[in-house]
Amino acid sequence: MVNNVHELRPRVPDSEKITINLGFVDLGHIDLLVQEGFYANRTDFIRTAIRNQIERHGDAVRQAVTRKSVDLGLRHISRRELEAARDAGEMLDVRVLGLASLAQDITPELAHATIASLTVLGGLHASVAVKSILADRIR
């Protein structure tokens, strides 16, 4: 067995686990649809329902993304990007619908000096120290 294999880049999860509370009647309806073969399981039903609602409101989402200048999908912020902003005397207003990922080698000081605001609709991956120093700037 090879013991000298190293991961070049940590794997970013492609989903976020959430918890919801449902009434017993709603849950019973879902279970019935699963039992009748319309869906593979509860999760399949819930994902399908969410996707249908997102599609139903697709025009409104697209307009909001355009109006608010939001990055859609994965937005990775590197140390190099923040250093360039710092060197240019700029502060970044980061807006993401999806996943915002700040590189693990970003120091709290660099993040504080270069990120004016961080708005994430979805998930945020950053070190605990960076999240802590940006706490008052995260919306």
Description of the structure:
The chain has 139 residues and is an alpha/beta fold. The protein has two domains: 24-56; 69-137, no CATH class. The protein contains six helices and three strands. It has a three-stranded parallel beta sheet with strand order 1-2-3, covered by helices on one side. Strand 2 (92-102), helix 5 and strand 3 (115-125) form a beta-alpha-beta unit. Helix 4 (79-87) crosses helix 5. The longest helix has 15 residues, at 42-56. It is elongated and about 60 Å long. The chain starts with 23 loop residues before the first helix and ends in a 6-residue tail after the last helix. This is Arc/MetJ-type ribon-helix-helix transcriptional regulator. InterPro entries: Arc_rbn_hlx_hlx, RHH_8, Ribbon_hlx_hlx.
